[in-house]
Amino acid sequence: MSLLQPTDFNIVCAVLGGFVSLFGLVSYFIKERLFLSEALIALLVGIGLGPHGANLIRPLDYASGSPERVDAITLAFTRLVLGVQLVLAGVQLPKMYLFHQRRSLGVLLGPAMLLKWGVSSVLVRLLVPGAGWITALATAACITPTDPILANNIVKGQFADAHIPPRLQQLITAESGANDGLGYPFLFAALHTLKYVAIGPGGARAAAAQWLGETVCYVVLLSVVYGAAVGWVAKELLHFAEKRKLVDRESFLVFAIALALLIVGTCGMLGSDDVLACFVAGNIFTLDDWFRLETMDDSLQPTVDMLLNMSVFLWFGAACPWRTFARIPTARLLLLAAAVILLRRPPVVLALRRWIPNVQSTREALFAGYFGPIGVSAIFYLLLTQEFLGDLERHAGVEELRHLITPVVWMCVITSVVVHGITIPFIMLGNAVPDSIGIVRFPSWNVRRRQQRRTAKASGGEENALLNADDDEEAAAGTAGYGAVAVRG
User: Quick one: residue 460, left, alpha or beta (phi over 0 = left, psi -120 to 50 = alpha)?
Assistant: First the structure.
């Protein structure tokens, strides 16, 4: 028996541990000096170590040579990462945030999502050869939601602290968390149309009944009720245990992550929307702000979150089905990905800006519109689609959708990770070069507030002006005192 044991498990552990260790040694420099996202680095390393690179990470071997098993592993991985991420996103939002910001979120989760779905559908229909409207609608539904993991990379760190007001950070976090679960109605509107109208039997009435009864009521509304109930019960139980000194600090800190695992598992067994349930549970769990304030200075939750995020993008880089990209001309695929990033969201947010109170200028609308990345949630919906198609009988519409949706969604995800991952470094480069070069600068939010202070002081009304500015920030953030703390800090 050979002493050397280069098994798949040993290689994966070595690769993951080595990558995380090496990245950790220079993580501050990469994220806070170069302003590169950990998702971008992990994706590139996954590509380099995957089957088309060093071949150290071999997803197909782990799945016994079955592409379907690779998809099943990836789907489970995305559910786990999204569940943990969305519970933590809900926990990190201020007290009663969804209620206080219902108007802004209502616009972003209603008309804005509908318009993003429509714009993306038109782009897919026009730029993908052979794509019919059902294929375009289903594909667009996968890339409509804003990814909470990539969005989280944008609204945290030195760049966000300096350039993005807290109300905008919180709005992007809340919207990306909520709209992930709300992608179900858009996706299954197209899939049920394919199943009952294009294939039959049943027709439009059966498709509408199935969509309303199964997707909207059972999958979406049940997940909201279930997430709220679990979040409320968990909050009360943790309060009870903490008051009676029954829970130690370690268990207290990991409670939200355990809650995410519980919801992902139980919702998965029920066949409901575990992604939306996790976000709702996180918000209800911190309805009184107690848990958020108790864990604000703790690093356990962000650490677990970072490990999961880096792992999933490392896996994406290795598991990406590159050969499927040959199904669509490369120029059209790249053009589509670029058009989706530029047209799917920025014009929509800009057009609806006046009805979104937390977006207070055209510049903020362009920023919030541009930074609506496509990531883990798109792969999640893609694999749900493939799973749904596997239960349908052979049909031209089914084969068309199965053939085209994979390269389009994966290309949009990779392009978004790369483009959004390098945008902030280019912005900071623009801030660093002399004005004479003519690069557009991205103004600092803190600098603008200091300028307001100087202007107010010069006019003799500094105290009132500062109080009014802080009150406005508090109202926008939906939490007492938060704006004042953020500005004065």
Answer: left
